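Lecture 7 notes: from sequence to structure.

We start with a single chain of 98 residues. Read the sequence below before looking at the structure.
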Amino acid sequence: MRDIGSGPAGCLPVAIEVMTAYTDSTDDPGFFWASVQRVMADGAGRSNPAAAIAELVLGLSTLCGIALDHLAERAGPERGPRDVLAAIQRAYVTDPPA
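Now the structure, written as tokens:
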């Protein structure tokens, strides 16, 4: 797995919180949206709201990268992260489920 260093890892807690709300919102999509709104409001209340939003984006990107690397490792040595991304694009963008 790729070493993400200390920078992006510091942004992970909020990203994990938001994505945990996503996984817990199957029966109540409003729960996820309320979590996102709370995180955004907390960031807007900080001394540098733009930095708070950038941290959220960096955290979500880092979390996606970790998940992507993990999926590629599970897919086997002949598949890398680009292959996983291409498969996701085919499944959800090019030929989305009906």
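The helical segments are 12-23, 29-44, 49-75, 81-94. Keep this in mind for problem set 3.
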